[in-house]
Amino acid sequence: MENGNSIVAQLQARFGTDTFKPQSTKDDILTLWMPHDKIKDVLAFLKHDIPQPFPLLYDLTATDERTRKHENGHVPYAFTIIYHLLSFERNSFIRLKVGFRDEFPTVQSISSLWANANWYEREVYDMFGIRFSGHPHLYRILMPRTWVGHPLRKEHPARATEMGPFALYDDKVDLEQAALQFKPEEWGLQRQSEDSDFMFLNIGPQHPGTHGVLRIVLQLDGEDIVDAIPDIGFHHRGQEKMAERQSWHTYLPYTDRVDYLGGVMNNLAYLMAVEKLAGIKVPERVKVIRVMLCELFRIASHLVWYGTFAQDVGQLSPVFYMFTDREKIFDIVEAITGGRMHPNWFRIGGVAQDLPKGWETLVQNFINYFPKRLKEYDNMVMKNSLFKARTKGIGIFTLDEAIEWGVTGPNLRACGFEWDFRKKQPYSGYEMFDFDVPTATNGDCYDRAVVRVAEMRQSLRIIEQCLKNMPEGPYKADHPLTTPPIKKNTMHDIETLITHFLGVSWGPVMPFGEAMSCIEATKGANGYYVTSDGNTSPYRLRIRTPSFPHMQMLPYITKGYTVADLLSILGAMDYVLADIDR
Amino acid sequence: MEEAAPNYFLIIGGVLFVMLNVAAALIWVERRLLALFQDRYGPNRAGPLGLLIVAADSIKLFFKQDWIPPFADKPVFILAPAIVVVTVLMSFVVIPFAPGVIVADLNIGLLFFLAMSSMGAYSIILGGWASNNKYSLLGAMRGAAQMISYEVFMGLSLMGVVLLSGSFSLVEIVEAQSGLWFFIPQIVGFVIFFIAGIAETHRLPFDIPEAESELVAGFHSEYSGMKFGMFFIGEYMGITLISCMIVTLYFGGWLGPDFLPPVVWFILKTAFFLMIFILLRASMPRPRYDQLMEFGWKILLPITLVNLLVTAGVVLWVKE
């Protein structure tokens, strides 16, 4: 925190000593409340002027504070806007909060400060009804345009039974259809230039190239893309709203379905935050088991990306080979967890069961088998000259642009920046492992592929180390909040029995506080920012996903390319619609 | 061909029958082979080895609702799929399957083939235009551009063969190969014709007018039922035609050792090239449309011209 003190000192020197109020949190991230008339100045100062600046807007979200339990309500506000910034040089986050007392506040927009603030602010508007003054396109982003209400406000119903029966009248059909009509003028797009009429082409929501329900409206001059407007939200399930109704324990299966290719990796991101709240230190064996499964899922996810990317540029066969290999990973995952894509296997304070007998053989077989296949894929895909022609020099962005747009993960490393949260801010025992962080230099579609392919090899190295050095010990932490609790003493003393009973029936009661996690997920930095008001379910849970800012960057990197290149760019981006929309 | 006259209708009927069945059988062959290359089973449920998938597919195509989108240009929309089948079938008129087994030995057979395959471009353009759909239109535009550029050196690449044999008649071209198959002296011409042939039939890697991952189904996005079936059959007959032409022009047509009848040699050779087409589909990514054009105009066209020049020079030199 000596680092943090210097930031506070610098901020106070610039903006006055009474401007900032620090708050203590469970995750040791410097948290400061700032007044709402200085948002832009403070953030601009942190981005540009402070020594060792915070160039990445990691997340921007809000909380409805109105129904917090009174005894914990040291926040006298109705709504809070929360900014998370990341400094690479300091290797630390900073959290800035602004409180508002109005029911429908208006906030200074920072979309002119960070390119990726645009979508985040739209999301906050959509979910909370908070307006941003100076925002260029403050429309709904996840909910349909015709939606009434703002879902993450506490007064908005969370269950279907509270909403009343759904009926689709003819008028409503017309209304919904009209709302889906694309109006170029809304986005400041011209219908024609001096010498040609533009064509507006709807890619999606049902299209073989978008890998999910994504709609992109292209402004085309011939086949050249003049501009592109992604329309997301078709996969929105209200993950953040659902968390407010689930217990801390029963929310776990929902996390599996955020980045549905990442499997248990999502559990980990959530649990890292929850365990910080609960103050649980997990045993070594748990850490290594978790790392092993996460890396297996990283390979599985990259294999899906690899195959579908090749298919996007017209290569039909690799996807079959790669899905076959993914099945081999799922065989291991199935043997260990019983599930495949969504095993829901990590638990608060541990994992669901111990590793089964014979898991070593399965993992060893895969380690022996997989490198040969990777080499084969290199020859088939990466060294293919047509593949190179389709991906080299396409969709380039520089490192500065990547940071400006909030790009993380392999896409960031393809710009030549060695930033991996597993190395920089090790979690779950990654500091014990020996692995490299692959990077590439050009930041084009091909380099993004190079990084991912190299990452699979590194993941394999990590899995091998897990196999060789799996520590002995319990698979659950000995802590009252471990869920399901350890049953050892329940039949011997009444206190343990009661704790056990309540932990299983109500679910664990997390102590008051807030914490954020940040893990290197398959697609980039994934984080859960959880707020507890000392209850059995989260008061507010925010999921920061990597695909959201990546997709936001699409218009910027597709301009001037052709429709065919768009598919290369989408393929190389490696997004999952559930990860964008949540 | 006076002695062939009595068999005239038999031959036409035979060629039609065989070709339509080959196209149908290719449904099965392609799907099984692709599956083989991709570590899958492919259709193996209906009938022995899944052969009845052909029947199932045809029944499905025939009995699907014959849907014409209300926004389409109806007459053109109907005409387009017919063109592709008609032009390809017409091209088979000049193919000599065996001595005497040919519908019409035109003395301009080769030119007739080129003319007919160029006409095939109309089906793509008209189909894409009449669908009144943006994806179809993009596909049609790409198709037109691709066809036009590939026609040019497809024709030129064949001129080497014409120089060597001194004739446009396909029967005479085959007979001229009795000493040496033309793929040896004309290896460059063969490779270029093969590439142009893939582009002509718009198969992967040159399936740019369709480009599934980009344009949904390209020029035939709006087609369904048997109208789609016509495009489908047209494509299969197209690759059969190109395979037949490769065999006729470069691999000695029906010529082969005597232990097999000529027509069997022809079929075997053609089948080999059909499988190459399918293997290509399984293995290659798709270049971008402008890359394909660049490749055509900047690389293939000059090579073709040089090939033609060298061949002409050699022929002249040998004659003197």
Uncertain spans of chain A, ≥5 residues at pLDDT below 50?
none
**Which stretches of chain B are low in confidence, meaning pLDDT under 50 for 5 or more residues running?**
none
CATH topology of the largest domain in chain A: Cytochrome-c3 Hydrogenase, chain B
Number of helices of chain A: 21
Pfam families (chain B): NADHdh
Catalytic activity (chain B): a quinone + NADH + 5 H(+)(in) = a quinol + NAD(+) + 4 H(+)(out)
Subunit structure (chain B): NDH-1 is composed of 14 different subunits. Subunits NuoA, H, J, K, L, M, N constitute the membrane sector of the complex.
GO molecular function (chain B): NADH dehydrogenase activity; oxidoreductase activity, acting on NAD(P)H, quinone or similar compound as acceptor; quinone binding
Structure description:
- The complex is a heterodimer of chains A (582) and B (320).
- By secondary structure, chain A is an alpha+beta fold.
- Chain A contains 21 helices and 16 strands.
- In chain A, helix 11 (359-382) runs antiparallel to helix 16 (445-468).
- The longest helix of chain A has 29 residues, at 284-312.
- Chain B has one domain.
- Chain B is built from 11 helices and no strands.
- The longest helix of chain B is centred in the middle third of the chain and has 32 residues, at 134-165.
- The mean pLDDT of chain B is 83.
- At the A-B interface, strand 8, helix 9, helix 10, helix 12 and helix 20 of A face helix 5, helix 8, helix 10 and helix 11 of B.
- Chain A: This is NADH-quinone oxidoreductase subunit C/D.
